[in-house]
Design brief:
14% strand, Cysteine Rich Protein, 3-stranded antiparallel beta sheet, alpha+beta
Length: 421
Protein backbone atom coordinates (compact mmCIF):
# COMPACT_ATOMS: atom_id res chain seq x y z
CA UNK A 1 0.00 0.00 0.00
CA UNK A 2 2.82 2.40 0.85
CA UNK A 3 4.50 1.74 -2.49
CA UNK A 4 1.24 2.36 -4.36
CA UNK A 5 0.89 5.74 -2.60
CA UNK A 6 4.48 6.59 -3.58
CA UNK A 7 3.72 5.82 -7.22
CA UNK A 8 0.50 7.87 -7.20
CA UNK A 9 2.16 11.02 -5.83
CA UNK A 10 5.04 10.92 -8.29
CA UNK A 11 5.21 14.17 -10.20
CA UNK A 12 8.07 16.47 -11.03
CA UNK A 13 7.74 19.90 -9.38
CA UNK A 14 6.74 21.75 -12.54
CA UNK A 15 5.59 24.82 -10.64
CA UNK A 16 8.86 25.30 -8.77
CA UNK A 17 11.09 27.86 -10.49
CA UNK A 18 8.62 28.36 -13.34
CA UNK A 19 9.43 31.43 -15.43
CA UNK A 20 12.82 32.11 -13.82
CA UNK A 21 15.32 33.79 -16.13
CA UNK A 22 18.24 31.74 -17.44
CA UNK A 23 21.56 33.14 -16.22
CA UNK A 24 23.34 31.45 -19.12
CA UNK A 25 21.05 32.08 -22.10
CA UNK A 26 19.76 35.51 -20.91
CA UNK A 27 16.94 36.77 -23.18
CA UNK A 28 17.14 33.73 -25.48
CA UNK A 29 15.24 31.73 -22.86
CA UNK A 30 11.57 32.59 -22.29
CA UNK A 31 11.85 31.47 -18.66
CA UNK A 32 12.29 28.17 -16.85
CA UNK A 33 9.83 25.46 -17.83
CA UNK A 34 10.70 21.97 -16.64
CA UNK A 35 10.70 19.22 -19.27
CA UNK A 36 8.17 16.53 -18.39
CA UNK A 37 10.86 13.91 -17.73
CA UNK A 38 14.27 15.37 -18.45
CA UNK A 39 15.76 17.46 -15.63
CA UNK A 40 16.19 20.51 -17.88
CA UNK A 41 14.33 23.58 -19.12
CA UNK A 42 12.17 22.90 -22.17
CA UNK A 43 12.96 26.34 -23.59
CA UNK A 44 16.75 26.50 -23.42
CA UNK A 45 17.84 22.97 -22.36
CA UNK A 46 19.75 24.34 -19.34
CA UNK A 47 19.27 22.93 -15.84
CA UNK A 48 17.44 24.52 -12.89
CA UNK A 49 20.71 25.68 -11.32
CA UNK A 50 21.46 27.77 -14.43
CA UNK A 51 18.28 29.76 -13.77
CA UNK A 52 17.71 32.57 -11.28
CA UNK A 53 15.88 30.47 -8.68
CA UNK A 54 16.33 30.88 -4.91
CA UNK A 55 17.11 27.34 -3.73
CA UNK A 56 17.84 27.73 0.00
CA UNK A 57 14.55 26.34 1.32
CA UNK A 58 14.49 23.52 -1.23
CA UNK A 59 18.10 22.58 -0.43
CA UNK A 60 17.35 22.39 3.29
CA UNK A 61 14.31 20.20 2.66
CA UNK A 62 16.35 17.92 0.40
CA UNK A 63 19.20 17.44 2.86
CA UNK A 64 16.77 17.01 5.75
CA UNK A 65 14.99 14.31 3.73
CA UNK A 66 18.31 12.64 3.00
CA UNK A 67 19.08 12.21 6.70
CA UNK A 68 15.65 11.26 7.97
CA UNK A 69 15.12 7.70 9.20
CA UNK A 70 18.81 7.27 9.89
CA UNK A 71 21.22 8.08 12.69
CA UNK A 72 23.23 11.21 11.99
CA UNK A 73 26.77 9.99 11.49
CA UNK A 74 29.11 12.59 12.87
CA UNK A 75 31.23 12.84 15.98
CA UNK A 76 30.01 16.29 17.02
CA UNK A 77 26.34 15.35 16.71
CA UNK A 78 26.94 12.01 18.45
CA UNK A 79 28.51 13.67 21.47
CA UNK A 80 25.82 16.34 21.75
CA UNK A 81 22.59 14.56 20.84
CA UNK A 82 21.08 11.52 19.20
CA UNK A 83 18.33 11.24 16.65
CA UNK A 84 17.52 12.86 13.35
CA UNK A 85 18.99 16.33 12.81
CA UNK A 86 17.03 19.29 11.53
CA UNK A 87 19.07 20.69 8.68
CA UNK A 88 19.26 24.44 8.28
CA UNK A 89 21.95 25.93 6.09
CA UNK A 90 20.67 29.51 6.18
CA UNK A 91 23.12 32.36 5.80
CA UNK A 92 25.20 33.17 8.87
CA UNK A 93 27.21 36.31 9.49
CA UNK A 94 30.44 36.00 11.45
CA UNK A 95 32.15 39.08 12.82
CA UNK A 96 35.84 38.80 13.58
CA UNK A 97 38.79 41.19 13.86
CA UNK A 98 40.18 41.88 10.41
CA UNK A 99 43.36 39.85 9.88
CA UNK A 100 46.83 41.39 10.07
CA UNK A 101 45.69 44.70 11.60
CA UNK A 102 46.54 46.26 14.97
CA UNK A 103 44.42 45.53 18.01
CA UNK A 104 41.41 47.80 18.22
CA UNK A 105 40.95 47.91 14.43
CA UNK A 106 37.38 47.74 12.98
CA UNK A 107 35.65 44.37 13.08
CA UNK A 108 35.08 42.58 9.80
CA UNK A 109 31.71 40.95 9.05
CA UNK A 110 31.41 38.20 6.45
CA UNK A 111 28.21 36.40 5.51
CA UNK A 112 28.52 32.73 4.55
CA UNK A 113 25.77 30.70 2.91
CA UNK A 114 27.14 27.71 4.79
CA UNK A 115 29.75 27.11 7.49
CA UNK A 116 30.70 23.94 9.36
CA UNK A 117 28.52 23.41 12.47
CA UNK A 118 31.18 24.00 15.12
CA UNK A 119 30.87 26.01 18.33
CA UNK A 120 34.16 27.83 17.71
CA UNK A 121 33.48 30.44 15.01
CA UNK A 122 37.21 31.06 14.56
CA UNK A 123 37.64 27.38 13.64
CA UNK A 124 34.74 27.61 11.17
CA UNK A 125 36.27 30.65 9.49
CA UNK A 126 39.72 29.02 9.36
CA UNK A 127 38.16 25.95 7.72
CA UNK A 128 36.60 28.13 5.02
CA UNK A 129 39.84 30.07 4.51
CA UNK A 130 41.60 26.79 3.72
CA UNK A 131 39.25 26.14 0.80
CA UNK A 132 40.16 27.43 -2.69
CA UNK A 133 39.08 31.11 -2.89
CA UNK A 134 36.65 30.47 -5.76
CA UNK A 135 34.88 27.77 -3.72
CA UNK A 136 34.35 29.60 -0.43
CA UNK A 137 30.59 29.98 0.21
CA UNK A 138 30.67 33.74 0.83
CA UNK A 139 27.27 35.23 0.03
CA UNK A 140 27.13 37.01 -3.32
CA UNK A 141 30.31 35.43 -4.71
CA UNK A 142 31.09 32.71 -7.25
CA UNK A 143 31.86 30.43 -4.31
CA UNK A 144 28.22 30.63 -3.18
CA UNK A 145 27.05 29.86 -6.72
CA UNK A 146 29.49 26.93 -6.85
CA UNK A 147 28.05 25.51 -3.63
CA UNK A 148 24.45 25.73 -4.87
CA UNK A 149 25.34 24.08 -8.18
CA UNK A 150 27.29 21.33 -6.44
CA UNK A 151 24.39 20.75 -4.06
CA UNK A 152 22.10 20.08 -7.03
CA UNK A 153 24.64 17.97 -8.88
CA UNK A 154 26.08 15.91 -6.01
CA UNK A 155 22.80 15.26 -4.19
CA UNK A 156 20.12 14.89 -6.87
CA UNK A 157 16.69 14.49 -5.30
CA UNK A 158 15.80 11.78 -7.80
CA UNK A 159 18.54 9.58 -6.29
CA UNK A 160 16.81 9.50 -2.90
CA UNK A 161 13.11 10.27 -3.39
CA UNK A 162 10.95 8.07 -5.68
CA UNK A 163 8.36 10.85 -5.92
CA UNK A 164 10.93 12.93 -7.84
CA UNK A 165 11.37 10.23 -10.49
CA UNK A 166 9.39 9.72 -13.68
CA UNK A 167 6.90 6.85 -13.92
CA UNK A 168 8.53 4.24 -11.69
CA UNK A 169 6.65 0.98 -11.38
CA UNK A 170 5.77 -0.33 -7.90
CA UNK A 171 8.62 -2.84 -8.23
CA UNK A 172 11.08 -0.05 -9.09
CA UNK A 173 9.88 2.05 -6.17
CA UNK A 174 10.50 -0.87 -3.82
CA UNK A 175 14.01 -1.43 -5.22
CA UNK A 176 14.82 2.26 -4.88
CA UNK A 177 13.58 2.40 -1.29
CA UNK A 178 15.76 -0.63 -0.46
CA UNK A 179 18.75 1.04 -2.17
CA UNK A 180 18.27 4.29 -0.21
CA UNK A 181 17.80 2.42 3.07
CA UNK A 182 20.99 0.45 2.43
CA UNK A 183 23.22 3.46 1.72
CA UNK A 184 21.84 5.32 4.74
CA UNK A 185 22.86 2.38 6.90
CA UNK A 186 26.22 1.69 5.27
CA UNK A 187 27.63 4.72 3.48
CA UNK A 188 26.09 8.14 4.26
CA UNK A 189 27.77 10.56 6.62
CA UNK A 190 28.74 14.17 7.35
CA UNK A 191 32.28 15.24 8.06
CA UNK A 192 33.40 16.72 11.38
CA UNK A 193 35.78 19.68 11.67
CA UNK A 194 38.26 19.47 14.56
CA UNK A 195 41.82 20.31 15.34
CA UNK A 196 43.81 17.05 15.36
CA UNK A 197 44.97 17.82 18.89
CA UNK A 198 41.32 18.23 19.95
CA UNK A 199 40.50 14.89 18.37
CA UNK A 200 43.18 13.34 20.55
CA UNK A 201 41.37 14.65 23.63
CA UNK A 202 37.99 13.44 22.33
CA UNK A 203 39.35 9.97 21.72
CA UNK A 204 41.04 9.96 25.09
CA UNK A 205 37.77 10.91 26.81
CA UNK A 206 35.73 8.40 24.81
CA UNK A 207 37.99 5.38 24.89
CA UNK A 208 40.15 6.05 27.96
CA UNK A 209 43.94 6.36 28.04
CA UNK A 210 45.97 3.69 26.29
CA UNK A 211 49.33 5.24 26.89
CA UNK A 212 51.12 8.29 25.60
CA UNK A 213 50.73 11.98 26.26
CA UNK A 214 47.50 13.85 25.61
CA UNK A 215 48.77 17.43 25.62
CA UNK A 216 47.57 19.72 22.84
CA UNK A 217 50.72 21.82 22.58
CA UNK A 218 53.22 19.04 21.98
CA UNK A 219 54.63 18.80 18.48
CA UNK A 220 56.28 15.43 18.90
CA UNK A 221 54.12 13.63 21.45
CA UNK A 222 51.54 10.92 20.90
CA UNK A 223 48.11 11.62 19.36
CA UNK A 224 46.11 11.53 22.55
CA UNK A 225 44.60 8.41 24.02
CA UNK A 226 44.60 6.63 20.66
CA UNK A 227 48.36 6.22 20.98
CA UNK A 228 49.01 7.44 17.41
CA UNK A 229 52.30 9.28 16.79
CA UNK A 230 52.32 12.93 15.74
CA UNK A 231 53.66 12.08 12.27
CA UNK A 232 50.32 10.39 11.54
CA UNK A 233 48.73 13.82 11.32
CA UNK A 234 48.82 13.56 7.53
CA UNK A 235 46.05 14.01 5.01
CA UNK A 236 44.41 10.85 3.69
CA UNK A 237 44.07 12.44 0.23
CA UNK A 238 47.34 14.23 -0.50
CA UNK A 239 49.60 12.60 2.09
CA UNK A 240 50.95 15.97 3.21
CA UNK A 241 51.26 16.68 6.96
CA UNK A 242 48.66 18.68 8.85
CA UNK A 243 49.95 21.95 10.26
CA UNK A 244 49.61 22.42 14.00
CA UNK A 245 46.56 24.51 14.79
CA UNK A 246 44.94 23.88 11.38
CA UNK A 247 41.46 22.25 11.35
CA UNK A 248 41.03 18.84 9.77
CA UNK A 249 37.98 17.01 8.46
CA UNK A 250 37.09 13.60 9.92
CA UNK A 251 34.62 11.03 8.59
CA UNK A 252 33.10 8.63 11.10
CA UNK A 253 32.54 5.98 8.40
CA UNK A 254 36.26 6.00 7.64
CA UNK A 255 37.36 5.83 11.26
CA UNK A 256 38.80 8.67 13.28
CA UNK A 257 42.36 7.57 12.56
CA UNK A 258 41.95 9.22 9.12
CA UNK A 259 41.76 12.94 8.43
CA UNK A 260 41.71 15.33 5.48
CA UNK A 261 42.70 18.91 4.73
CA UNK A 262 39.49 20.95 4.16
CA UNK A 263 40.37 21.36 0.46
CA UNK A 264 41.15 17.64 0.17
CA UNK A 265 37.76 16.36 1.38
CA UNK A 266 36.62 15.61 -2.16
CA UNK A 267 34.82 12.96 -4.19
CA UNK A 268 37.20 10.33 -5.56
CA UNK A 269 35.45 10.43 -8.95
CA UNK A 270 34.75 14.09 -9.78
CA UNK A 271 37.46 15.50 -7.44
CA UNK A 272 35.05 18.27 -6.37
CA UNK A 273 34.60 19.43 -2.77
CA UNK A 274 31.98 17.38 -0.95
CA UNK A 275 29.24 19.97 -0.55
CA UNK A 276 28.49 20.74 3.12
CA UNK A 277 30.87 17.83 3.92
CA UNK A 278 28.16 15.27 3.03
CA UNK A 279 29.94 12.11 1.92
CA UNK A 280 29.35 8.48 0.99
CA UNK A 281 32.02 6.00 2.12
CA UNK A 282 32.65 2.86 0.07
CA UNK A 283 35.63 0.50 0.00
CA UNK A 284 38.02 3.04 1.50
CA UNK A 285 36.99 5.94 -0.74
CA UNK A 286 34.92 9.12 -0.41
CA UNK A 287 32.15 9.71 -2.93
CA UNK A 288 29.61 12.43 -3.52
CA UNK A 289 26.01 11.21 -3.68
CA UNK A 290 25.87 11.22 -7.48
CA UNK A 291 29.00 9.17 -8.03
CA UNK A 292 28.22 6.78 -5.20
CA UNK A 293 24.94 6.11 -7.01
CA UNK A 294 26.81 5.65 -10.29
CA UNK A 295 29.11 3.11 -8.63
CA UNK A 296 26.09 1.04 -7.57
CA UNK A 297 23.56 1.40 -10.40
CA UNK A 298 23.50 2.40 -14.09
CA UNK A 299 22.26 5.95 -14.67
CA UNK A 300 20.00 6.94 -17.55
CA UNK A 301 21.65 9.56 -19.77
CA UNK A 302 18.19 10.81 -20.75
CA UNK A 303 16.42 11.48 -17.44
CA UNK A 304 19.54 11.41 -15.18
CA UNK A 305 17.86 8.88 -12.86
CA UNK A 306 19.37 5.66 -11.56
CA UNK A 307 17.96 2.63 -13.37
CA UNK A 308 16.10 0.13 -11.19
CA UNK A 309 14.40 -1.89 -13.94
CA UNK A 310 15.92 -5.06 -15.40
CA UNK A 311 15.78 -3.98 -19.05
CA UNK A 312 17.64 -0.96 -20.36
CA UNK A 313 19.79 -0.17 -23.35
CA UNK A 314 23.38 0.94 -23.87
CA UNK A 315 24.30 3.32 -26.68
CA UNK A 316 27.08 5.80 -27.36
CA UNK A 317 28.87 4.79 -24.15
CA UNK A 318 25.85 5.56 -21.93
CA UNK A 319 22.96 3.71 -20.31
CA UNK A 320 19.35 4.58 -21.11
CA UNK A 321 15.86 3.60 -20.01
CA UNK A 322 14.30 1.99 -23.09
CA UNK A 323 11.68 4.77 -23.25
CA UNK A 324 14.29 7.52 -22.78
CA UNK A 325 16.60 6.82 -25.72
CA UNK A 326 14.96 9.69 -27.57
CA UNK A 327 15.77 12.63 -29.79
CA UNK A 328 17.03 15.44 -27.57
CA UNK A 329 14.98 17.97 -29.55
CA UNK A 330 11.59 16.36 -30.27
CA UNK A 331 11.61 13.36 -27.86
CA UNK A 332 10.76 10.80 -30.56
CA UNK A 333 11.91 7.25 -29.70
CA UNK A 334 15.17 6.40 -31.52
CA UNK A 335 15.20 2.60 -31.08
CA UNK A 336 15.78 1.18 -34.57
CA UNK A 337 15.94 4.68 -36.11
CA UNK A 338 18.80 6.63 -37.64
CA UNK A 339 20.16 9.35 -35.39
CA UNK A 340 23.12 11.72 -35.12
CA UNK A 341 25.09 12.56 -31.97
CA UNK A 342 25.18 16.33 -31.56
CA UNK A 343 26.99 17.77 -28.52
CA UNK A 344 26.94 14.26 -27.02
CA UNK A 345 23.13 14.11 -27.37
CA UNK A 346 21.21 11.86 -29.81
CA UNK A 347 19.16 13.77 -32.40
CA UNK A 348 16.82 12.26 -35.00
CA UNK A 349 17.59 12.93 -38.67
CA UNK A 350 14.71 15.42 -39.26
CA UNK A 351 15.73 17.50 -36.23
CA UNK A 352 19.37 17.31 -37.28
CA UNK A 353 18.52 18.58 -40.78
CA UNK A 354 16.40 21.37 -39.31
CA UNK A 355 18.69 22.66 -36.57
CA UNK A 356 22.22 21.30 -36.87
CA UNK A 357 23.09 20.33 -40.46
CA UNK A 358 25.65 22.43 -42.30
CA UNK A 359 24.44 24.27 -45.42
CA UNK A 360 25.91 23.61 -48.82
CA UNK A 361 27.69 26.76 -49.99
CA UNK A 362 26.48 26.08 -53.53
CA UNK A 363 22.79 25.07 -53.36
CA UNK A 364 22.24 26.47 -49.84
CA UNK A 365 20.39 23.30 -48.78
CA UNK A 366 21.34 21.36 -45.61
CA UNK A 367 23.73 18.42 -46.08
CA UNK A 368 22.30 15.07 -44.97
CA UNK A 369 24.48 13.47 -42.24
CA UNK A 370 24.91 10.32 -44.34
CA UNK A 371 25.60 12.16 -47.60
CA UNK A 372 29.13 12.60 -48.90
CA UNK A 373 30.39 16.14 -48.62
CA UNK A 374 33.49 18.25 -49.15
CA UNK A 375 34.56 20.71 -46.46
CA UNK A 376 37.10 23.48 -46.69
CA UNK A 377 37.46 25.81 -43.72
CA UNK A 378 33.98 26.97 -42.70
CA UNK A 379 32.45 26.06 -46.06
CA UNK A 380 30.80 22.81 -47.09
CA UNK A 381 29.46 21.35 -50.34
CA UNK A 382 27.51 18.29 -51.43
CA UNK A 383 30.03 15.96 -53.07
CA UNK A 384 27.99 16.04 -56.27
CA UNK A 385 28.83 17.53 -59.71
CA UNK A 386 26.01 20.11 -59.59
CA UNK A 387 27.29 21.51 -56.25
CA UNK A 388 31.03 20.93 -56.18
CA UNK A 389 31.83 22.72 -59.45
CA UNK A 390 33.81 25.69 -60.67
CA UNK A 391 31.89 28.95 -60.24
CA UNK A 392 33.43 30.24 -63.46
CA UNK A 393 33.10 27.40 -66.00
CA UNK A 394 30.88 24.85 -64.09
CA UNK A 395 33.55 22.16 -64.42
CA UNK A 396 33.11 19.34 -61.85
CA UNK A 397 35.90 19.62 -59.30
CA UNK A 398 35.46 16.28 -57.48
CA UNK A 399 38.93 14.74 -57.38
CA UNK A 400 40.45 17.83 -59.03
CA UNK A 401 42.65 20.66 -57.82
CA UNK A 402 40.63 23.74 -56.84
CA UNK A 403 40.79 27.05 -55.04
CA UNK A 404 38.10 28.33 -52.64
CA UNK A 405 37.63 32.08 -52.30
CA UNK A 406 34.79 33.73 -50.37
CA UNK A 407 32.72 30.55 -50.60
CA UNK A 408 33.23 30.24 -54.38
CA UNK A 409 35.09 27.36 -56.07
CA UNK A 410 37.44 27.85 -59.00
CA UNK A 411 39.45 25.53 -61.19
CA UNK A 412 41.91 28.24 -62.25
CA UNK A 413 42.97 31.84 -61.74
CA UNK A 414 41.31 32.72 -65.06
CA UNK A 415 37.90 31.49 -63.84
CA UNK A 416 38.38 33.37 -60.60
CA UNK A 417 38.92 36.61 -62.52
CA UNK A 418 35.63 36.04 -64.36
CA UNK A 419 33.64 36.01 -61.13
CA UNK A 420 35.64 38.02 -58.60
CA UNK A 421 37.41 41.28 -59.60
Amino acid sequence: MEIEKEVKKMALGHEFGAGAACLKCKDKCEGFELHFWRKICRNCKCGLTEHNVQMDTEENKKVGKLFEDTKYTGLIAKLKKDGIPSYNANMITITLPAPAVPKGAPMKSVTYEWAPPVANKHLAVRYIELLPPEKRPVAGTEGAVYRRQQMARQLPEHDQDPSKCHELSPAEVKKMQQFVRKYKEEALGVGDVLLPEEMALVQSAEFGPTGGATGTTSTAGAMGGAGLPQQNYSCQHCGQPMRLGEPAVYAERAGYDKLWHPACFVCCTCKELLVDMIYFWKKGKLYCGRHYGDSEKPRCAGCDELIFCNEYTQAEGHNWHLKHFCCFDCDCILAGETYVMENDKPVCTPCYMKSYAVKCSSCKNPVDPEAQRVSYGDHHWHAEPQCFQCSGCTKCLIGQRFMAVQGFLFCSVECKKKVLP
